[in-house]
Design brief:
CATH architecture: 4-Layer Sandwich
Strand content: 15-25%
Number of strands: 14
CATH superfamily: Ribonuclease Z/Hydroxyacylglutathione hydrolase-like
Structural class: alpha/beta
Number of helices: 8
Radius of gyration: 18 Å
Shape: globular
Number of domains: 1
Length: about 300
Amino acid sequence: MTFRAHILGAAAGGGLPQWNCGCKNCDLARNGKIPPQTQSSLAVSGNGESWAILNASPDIRHQLAQAPPLHPTGLRTLPLTSVLVTNGDIDHVAGLLTLREMQPFTLFATSGIHDVLSQNPMFDALNAAVVARETIALDTPFTLAPGIKATLFPVPGKVPLYLEGDVVQTDLIGDQTVGVTLETSDKAAFYIPGCALLTDDLRGRLEGADLLFFDGTLWQDDEMVCAGLGQKTGARMGHMSMSGPDGSLAAFKELNIGQKIFVHMNNTNPVLRPGSEEKAAAEAAGWTIGQDGMEIT
């Protein structure tokens, strides 16, 4: 069997262009100067026929329309087997409401993420008689789709914005923010769209991986502050930045990973601009900048 990964959305929450943003990247995207990107989501298949979606973004209707491998094959026959969400962020769960059209699939998540969904009655639109909700324990392998064994593991992060209290722990380790191991008979890929820092445990998991999709939210920690778009740093939002001594370019430098792809990039990130110095630096460090529609086999 051949593993296939199709990037449905490469941007972070808000997409590119973000509806209310007039930053350089958003203006360039509106004017057709750089490619627009939808919000974070990945589709994977172990046989090219049955697919799983990792994170259901608010853009999922458009994303599925742009992804021929996931188009209906009959009146209401779809190659979608399952949906897995890695946290409760709006940009990762809002698309579930679009998938309410009485279409059978399995919804995988940890108990903590399922609890967040169950507390909002709007998600009951996913009819329980049609959409099975499966709770997955950490570090417990399960079949995500035919030919793909998946395992969820904790990564440093925080609770969703709408659940934040007065004090926010941004490097929380638990089942609210997880990464995913995707294994076929002879290959191992990892999907980590949100991560606050590279711990020793995470470093050990990733060593020797064939493929990694990793959090590329910001180029530098104070990027949004410098752009005049907010007061939160990347660290405050629970994301590792790409550059700097503690950034992902430096942190992954010594790790043996076959192919490294950045996903979940904020609309302000300069690596989204072809020809930028930052994009060139990331590529020189061995990274690929993910794009909507990119497929890896």
